[in-house]
Amino acid sequence: MNPIINFKSIGNEKSGYLSFFESQKDIPFEIKRIYYIYDVPVNTKRGMHAHRNLQQVLWCPCGEIEIILDDGYSKEAYLLDKPEKALLVGKGLWREMYWRKEGSVLCVAASDYYDEEDYIRDYEQFLNYIRER
Ligand code: T46
């Protein structure tokens, strides 16, 4: 399944664009939380964890951020380089995020409230979790 979602956009070059998405219509879950990550120095790596149950949509309204998704068997890289381009990150995926341009902002819509118990922050533990599922 291709995890890239292209948000709907309205507008033109003269006056600019408006992009949007709607919970349970354009993305496959109800949004319970929104957060965003900013003022991150270029080439910083964040993430390095998986979620047991959380689903999320990631987008970068300005700048460029590379996301690596790892299902325990193979890795795939995605570049969020347009405001209307988003990435659906399902449950059970290890993720790494690399800030590729100064001033890049990562926005996230999440299917649930913050719960540290849902995180797997150790890679070996993640691989065991995938094998035992
Ligand atoms: C993810 C990627 C894309 C909270 O208290 N509430 C929150 O809603 C979140 C998201 C985080 N936190 C705390 C937990 C840590 O003490 O904020 C601190 C930094 O979180 P973390 O190191 O997990 O940040 P990232 O950028 O590595 O990961 C974040 C999300 O945590 C994660 O769910 O998928 O962005």
Provide a short characterization of the protein structure.
The protein has one helix at residues 123-132; strands spanning 4-6, 8-12, 16-20, 33-37, 45-51, 56-62, 65-70, 75-80, 85-89, 94-99, 105-110, 119-120.
Descriptive keywords:
133 residues, 12 strands, globular, binds dTDP-4-keto-6-deoxyglucose
- What is the arithmetic mean of pLDDT? 98
User: Total strand count, please?
Assistant: 12
Largest sheet geometry: 5 strands, antiparallel
Classification by helices and strands: mainly beta
> Segments where pLDDT lies below 50 for 5+ residues?
none
How would you spell out the order of helices and strands?
EEEEEEEEEEEEH
Bound molecules: dTDP-4-keto-6-deoxyglucose
Gap between N and C termini: 20 Å
Q: Secondary-structure blueprint of this entry?
A:
Elements lengths: L3 E3 L1 E5 L3 E5 L12 E5 L7 E7 L4 E7 L2 E6 L4 E6 L4 E5 L4 E6 L5 E6 L8 E2 L2 H10 L1
Antiparallel strand pairs: 1-9, 2-3, 4-11, 5-10, 5-12, 6-9, 6-11, 7-8, 7-10
Structural write-up:
- This protein is about 10% helix and about 45% strand.
- The protein has a five-stranded antiparallel beta sheet, with no helix packed on it. Strands 8-7-10-5-12 form a five-stranded antiparallel beta sheet.
- A hairpin with a 3-residue loop joins strand 2 (about 10) and strand 3.
- The protein has about 130 residues and is mainly beta.
- The mean pLDDT is about 100.
- DTDP-4-keto-6-deoxyglucose binds near residues 56 and 108.
- DTDP-4-keto-6-deoxyglucose (T46) binds next to strand 4, strand 5, strand 6 and strand 10.
